[in-house]
Amino acid sequence: MNTEIYKQKLEAEKTKLEAELATVGRINPDNPADWEAVPVDPGERESDPNDRADQIEDYENNTAILKQLEIQLMDVNDALAKIEKGTYGVCEVSGQPIEEGRLNANPAARTCMAHMNG
């Protein structure tokens, strides 16, 4: 298996995910491996409760989006680390090779097709 192709795909995906994360969050200054949602800046103090409620809802939406993107980024980083260790493309459940078609569709796949929903 030519892991260089997958490495390029994973690095491109990492760049994309980090850019998307930056639109809804920032790197946690206390933990550089963690992202946190950025509170919506109210500008001026909002006196209208509806405006404040909208800001809270936007923050909660950003938090949900951030969590999903962060999980994807962790999977990409794990896959890149596996390439470096020489363990890329091996199912974490069975230890068998992950199908090339699955890796083409999702280079960060952690399991073979038989175990992808487990």
Structure overview:
The protein has 118 residues and is mainly α. A two-stranded antiparallel ribbon has the order 1-2. The protein has helices spanning 3-24, 49-85, 100-105, and strands spanning 25-28, 31-37. Helix 1 (3-24) runs antiparallel to helix 2 (49-85). The model has no long low-confidence stretch (mean pLDDT 89). The longest helix is centred in the middle third of the chain and has 37 residues, at 49-85.
Write a compact overview of the structure shown.
By secondary structure, the protein is mostly helical. Helix content is 55%, strand content 9%.
> Unreliable runs, pLDDT <50, ≥5 residues?
none
Lateral strand order in the biggest sheet: 1-2
Q: What sequence of helices (H) and strands (E) makes up the elements?
A: HEEHH
What portion of the residues fall into strands of 2 or more residues?
Answer: 5-15%
Question: Would you spell out the secondary-structure blueprint of this structure?
Answer:
Blueprint: H1 3-24, E1 25-28, E2 31-37, H2 49-85, H3 100-105
Helix pairs in contact: 1-2
What are the main properties of this structure?
3 helices, two-stranded antiparallel ribbon, elongated, 55% helix, single chain, mainly alpha, 118 residues
